Amino acid sequence: MPAIESPIAEVHGVDAAALPDSVLTSPTPLVLRGVVRHWPIVQASLRSPGDGVDYIRRFARDAPIVAMVAKPGTGGRFFYNEDLSGFNFHMEKPKLVAVLEAMLRHLHDANPPTIYMGSTTVDTYLPGLRAENDVVLGQRDPLFSVWIGNRTRIAAHQDVPDNLACVAAGRRRFTLFPPQQLENLYIGPLDFTPAGQAISLVDFHDPDYDRFPRFAEALKHAQMAELEPGDAIFIPSLWWHHIEALEGFNVLLNYWWRQTPAHMDSPMNALMLAIMSVRDLPAEQRAAWQDMFRHYVFEAGDDTAAHIPDAARRVLGPIDADAARSLRLRLLQRLNR
């Protein structure tokens, strides 16, 4: 792993029952040291991995979950195969308890298979766990998820929601980059990804600077932190993050939410449509559409539709849930023509 000089800024002494908005709306990442160390799941895992597994087992439903499994020799890195036509792992649907038991069974293996259960809804598969292990996020209504695995490396990717990730067991290393480092991270396919989000093709443990020369520039903007059980990290929307689980048994609990109304679609949908309908236009037309996006989207303001009566502005006026529903229906009709 290349040396990274800039640490992620840290906050100490905040209360999980009253996290300040200055943290939850921060435009830059923050590490919250010890903020959930009091959680029962953290205390159990600090005693031993076995105690941590026993604690989680109390809440586990007898239902299959989705897990990613890679053979020994991958170094914990979930990635593509050589020609990017597939992946170096496969999906299984074990019971959650079976995943926990596999963690313990391979805990001390020098070269274990890599097992990873990601983004699993806590309230669905571990009902009751949140009642004993939670933070207060004000009026936000977050998605609460659990991630369990052994030593894994998750390639740099970005998420649209804000993210508060809490380490419940094991240690994790987070390496973050600002959104503006997109072109220096060499992102792979947008529509064929290991787990839903496009990822960096750079192996952070062994960067190929001949193939990815601009990654050296990305590293100048990187921030890094290692988190212990009970620590948390706030990752703002669209910050690139590479995550390494450093122990044989690791549990992460995270909260996702967006600082936008629920009726707003993901901007990724707009990007994919723009690639399909704008990117390959003749240069003159593409420039005209660039100016149109600037006028109606990126620099839109009070003057954009000031010449149109309020009642006649329609999509150029404020969009509420009803307007979004109507617009979505119209777009679906056009896309399905």
From TrEMBL:
Protein name as it appears in the record: Cupin
Species annotation: Pseudoxanthomonas dokdonensis
InterPro entries referenced in this protein's UniProt entry, alphabetically: Cupin_8 (IPR041667), JmjC_dom (IPR003347)
Domain of life: Bacteria
Domain JmjC positions: 79-272
Signal peptide positions on this chain: none
